[in-house]
Predict the structure.
Amino acid sequence: MASSVAYVLLLVAAFVLGLYHVLVEGGCAGRCCRGSDITCVTADWGMDRVYRTCYCDEGCLRTKDCCYDYPTECSGQSCVVTEWSSWSGCGQPCQRSVRIRRRYIEQEARNSGEPCPSLGEQAGCMEYRSHQGEFCTQNTGPGFITTMEFGKGRGKHDIYGTPLDPGFCMEYKMESLTPHCTVENRPHTRWMQYLREGYIVCVACQAPAMRNHSGSCQGDGQESNSEELLHWQAVGNSRCRGTWKKVQRTAYCSCPHVHSFLFI
């Protein structure tokens, strides 16, 4: 008899201790699970206001047996990143190079929220002064082009605050291009996908690519006739190159955004 009473008391004690443990450890805090996971379970108030076994996996939304705090503890949280940093300088002066910009994670994604996007970008560029401040020698050769977005990082005034020459625009009819252009998919080279034979493209000639003493950009072909075949090359992928013919020079570029480029 005594042993039976002791056994009952032991069961009661275990139940009380278990209940205490559940009350202290219940809810979804710290136990959210992805997908359907029957081990992702506790005992607490459900979303239906019934105290019972409840779950903290994503499948509970479908089976309607989530714990009461699932919406606040386990709701999807998308990744949050900072704004882009300023563009860095080019790698080398007087050479076609790349510049970079970065952004950083402020909050990681959780519970199937949107993952973080790319944290770095590169773009073709060129510095037109040496480390000693001297203008680089402008070589003859093809026109080097990049996306018009690059122009947003160019200054509009010189070091004394004087407005720079706004430049001009050259229109060309695209005659040929290599297949390496249309297959580009890296973040800083996707603009090359929009190059097409037969299309009219606009290419802006601006300072500092436009040398003030010459009023031209390398390879712009201002002095050529409309039948002369001119050569161009994309900055960021030396295998993306081709030919075009001059159409006209205009004060401003009026082509669609995807067909508007910039001399480097």
In short: The radius of gyration is 32 Å. The mean pLDDT is 80. Residues 4 and 10 are 10 Å apart (CA to CA).
